Amino acid sequence: MLPFKVLKGVDLDPFTNIDDIDIALKNGVVYSKYDDEIIVCIDIDNPNDSLNYISSLRGKYRIYMIDNDSYNNLLGKLKEEKSNQNIDAIDQDADDDTSLEEFLQNDDVLLEKEDSAPIINFVNTLFMKAVKQNTTDIHIETYEKRGLVKFRIDGVLSEIANVKRSVIVSIINRIKVISNLDISETRVPQDGRTKINIGNKQIDIRVSILPSHYGEKAVLRLLMKADAIPSLQELGFNEQTTNQLKGLLKHSFGMILITGPTGSGKSTTLYSFLKNIDHKTKNITTVEDPVEYNSFGINQIQVNDKVGLTFAKALRAILRQDPDVILLGEIRDNETAAISVQAAMTGHLLLSTLHTNNAAAAISRLTDMGVDSFLLSSTLLGVVAQRLVRTLCPFCKQENIISDEDSEFFKIEKNSKVYNAVGCQNCNDSGYKGRVAIGEIITIDEDILKVIKKSCDEYSIKEYLKTKPDFISMQSQLNSMILNGDTSIEEAIRIGIKEL
User: Whole-model pTM?
Assistant: First the structure.
C-alpha cells in the first residue's frame, strides 16, 4: 500500500490555478482544496499511473488517494470547468471586442481548410455552447453569399451566427470529417454520427447533410445518453397521467401507443417506459430509424431500407427472438400495423408511436391502416398524446389581460390575467426557460371497448371521452398553464391543440 492518506466518499471541487494542470491531468492527478490547503488527489484504483508525476510533489503538496467514485466526480468537475473556460476564451478570440464570428471572417486563407484552427475552434465551440444551452438540434444553412447557424432550443429555432458562405462550407466540411463522411461528395444526402466529450458528459451527435440550391445544409441532432433519460416522474406529466402510465406498463402483453407531432418528445417517453421495465429479467428489443439512445441491456436494431431491413421485416424477425418487450420506433404502414397487432396478441408488450394530433385520432388511424376493430379492442392497452410546452421565464414574464379574441378561442373567461414572454439575460432573450410535457391518455376499459367495436371514428371516440370525468384533455391542461402564468397565449397557439 502506498504511504498516502486515503479519503473516501468525499465531494471535492477542483483547484485550477496550477501552471501545469494539463500535464497533471494526463498523469491522472487532480488538484483540489481540503481543510483550507491545496492537495493532490490520485485514484485509489490506479495509483501507479500517477507515481512518476507525484514523485516531484512530495513535500510541496499533501497527497491523497481517493476512492474511484470521488475521483471520477472530481475529474468530471474539472473537465466541465475547463470546457467553460474554453468557451469564454474562444468567444473572446483575438481581443475582447472581437466576436468569434468577426474573427473567422478576418482571414479567408485560414478558412480554406476544414482542419484550420479557427474552424476547429468554431465547431468545438458550437458543440459546447449547444450542450450548455440544452440545444436539441444545430442547423447550418448555406445561401448565396452568407450562411446561418441556428440552435433549436425548447423546440424553437434561433439564429446564433451569420457568417460568410466560405465559412459555412468549411464548417460543414469539418463536420463531415469528424463524422466520417465523404468530404468530396456534395450532390447527394449523407448521414453519419459522431461523439464529443464535454466535461464528464459524452454526447452522441447524429449528422444529416443535404444538398440545397446554394450548397449544403447540415442538421446535427444532439442525443442524450441512455443514463440521462428521465424517469416517468421526471417527464413532467401531471400525477394522474403518471400513475395511469405506471399502470399500463404493468401489463405483460398488449400495445401502448404514443402520438404527437415531430419534436413532441415521443422517443424520450418511449425510452422512459423502458427505464421502468427491468431489462435483467426481460428480453427487450427495439427497432428504430435511427437508434436514438444507445442503451446497455437492450437489443437495438437500426432500420436500413437500402438492404431491405424495413420496420416490418425487422419486426417479423424479432418475433422469432423470444422477446418480452418490443419498442417499435414508428408504425408507418399497413404491414407494420398488422404485425404490431399480431405481436401484441401473442404475448408481447409492444410500445410504439403514431403521428396524430390527439389520442382519439390514433385509434381511427389504426383502423384506416386496415386493423380490424375487434383485433384493436383486444390488443390496445392505452394511447398517450403529448406535447412539450415552453414555460415562461420567471424573471421577465409580464402580466397582461387576455384579449376578447383569445378568450373566445381558448374558452377562457374574459378579463382573465395572463402573462406574456419578454426576454432577459436569464433566458437568452427568448422569454422562456425550459419545457414541460402535457398529455392526454386513453386507457382501454369495457366502456370504450364498446365504442371501438361499434365505431372507430375519431368523432365518436371524442364524444365518449367528454362523458368521462377522469379524462383531462391537453387543451384543458394548456388553459390551466395559461391561467397559472406558466406559459403564454403565443406558446399555446404555437402548440396548436384543438379542443375536443
Answer: 0.71
Other beta carbons within 10 Å of 328: 26
Round to whole Å and give the CA distance between 88 and 77: 17
Residue type at position 189: P
Identify the band that residue 324 occupies on the pLDDT scale cut at 50, 70 and 90: very high
> How would you list the strands of the sheet with 201-212, edge to edge?
156-164, 146-153, 135-142, 215-223, 201-212, 190-198
The set of cell numbers assigned to 222 is 444532439
Mean pLDDT of 82-105: 48
Beta-strand relationship, 325-328 and 284-288: parallel
pLDDT > 90 fraction of the chain, expressed in percent and rounded: 28
What mean pLDDT do residues 180-206 have? 84
Among all chains, which residue has been given the C-alpha cell 474511484? Answer: 68
Determine the angle formed by the axes of helices 117-132 and 68-92, rounding to 10 degrees: 120
Rg over alpha carbons for the chain, rounded to the nearest Å, is: 27
DSSP 257-283: EEE--TTSSHHHHHHHHHHTS-TTTS-
**Beta-bridge partner residues of 400:** 418
How many CA atoms lie within 13 Å of 264's alpha carbon, on the beta-carbon side? 24
**According to the model, what pLDDT value does residue 204 have?**
85
- Confidence grade of residue 176 (pLDDT, cut at 50, 70, 90): very high
Burial of 467: CB neighbours in 10 Å, binned 0-12, 13-18, 19+: exposed
d(CA 365, CA 355): 9
CA 456 to centroid of chain Cα atoms: 34
pLDDT at 395: 94
Largest CA distance in the chain: 85
